[in-house]
Amino acid sequence: MKAVWFEQFGAARDTLVLGDQPVPEPKQGEVLVRLKVTGVNPSDVKKRAGSFPNLLDDGLVIPHSDGAGIIEAVGPGGDASRIGERVWVYQAQYGRRLGTAAEYVALDEKLAVPLPDKTSFEIGACLGIPVMTAHRCVFADGDVEGTTILVTGGAGRVGYYAIQWAKQAGAKVITTASNSGDRDTCLALGADAVVNHREENWAAAVLDANEGKPVDRVVEVEFGKNLPQVLDCLRIGGTIATYSSSQDMSPQLPFYRMMFMDITLRMIIVYAMPEQAKQDAIRDITAALELGKLQHRVADVLPFEKMAEAHEIIEGGTVRGCVVVAVE
């Protein structure tokens, strides 16, 4: 099968290799998926760059956790009725070496989720990390109906879905955006108010948008950089659910201020989510897809031979929406 892999860490164009690899054999409890599309996420490019130094200890890595395709075979004793089923996959390259940047992937059958016929494979390849992360950020700490949620970076890959999950669940949503295009995107998704996080003391604008009251929860894209402002607009007993801190990777915490605010700080990554949280997200994603209740945004679909370019687009950090690569 054709595949892309890396055997050393470094820049995408220096490390990603396009060639042939053996088609994997599905083991008991696994399915073999012929991939149509592979999704590229920040965690994928960080792994390739060397964020996990022991990742290559057992050999080459075919990257990417997200993708979509059709089940072509099942492992011994598996449910043969699933052959031919359209699926989206997640966690394909978590705790193992072989991900979705290939024609085929064999993985645990529960990681291959039925994809409704009316949902494209391109959208299917966006569901794993962005949509599941957003779901966990919004719902990890209980019902949000009647609450006010601040979503920083609402036009980003995760924020885009967090706005939708929160609004559909009955929350008031305030979000941040730095330009008019992103502002319009957030409002179109249902955000009740948008403030500019590039303005000094933007926390005051959040309070103004919430009639002077602090928000109940924050879905946070830049934890370290935004923390001082977030603390100025979060209520006592509030929650920060954060999934990234790329601009300040070792933030210092004002411990006593946060302690006296009785804050819950929740770190979120799909790989480490409790299994029940994953199944809750899959249930809600499936229902939303079937009812057409989620808007999606695929920023770019690249051909397979441009995998390095796809990685570079993600590393550039300026693209809005998901980046996927066509396998076929």
From TrEMBL:
Keywords: NADP
Gene3D superfamilies, sorted: Medium-chain alcohol dehydrogenases, catalytic domain, NAD(P)-binding Rossmann-like Domain
Domain Enoyl reductase (ER), chain residue ranges per copy: 11-325
Sections of the chain in a coiled coil: none
Annotated SUPFAM superfamilies: GroES-like (SSF50129), NAD(P)-binding Rossmann-fold domains (SSF51735)
Stored InterPro entries: ADH-like_C (IPR013149), ADH-like_N (IPR013154), ER (IPR020843), GroES-like_sf (IPR011032), NAD(P)-bd_dom_sf (IPR036291), Zinc-ADH_QOR/CCCR (IPR051603)
SMART domains assigned: PKS_ER
Superkingdom, taxonomy of origin: Bacteria
Matches recorded under PANTHER family: QUINONE OXIDOREDUCTASE
Name of the protein: NADPH:quinone reductase
Organism ancestry: Bacteria, Pseudomonadati, Pseudomonadota, Gammaproteobacteria, Cellvibrionales
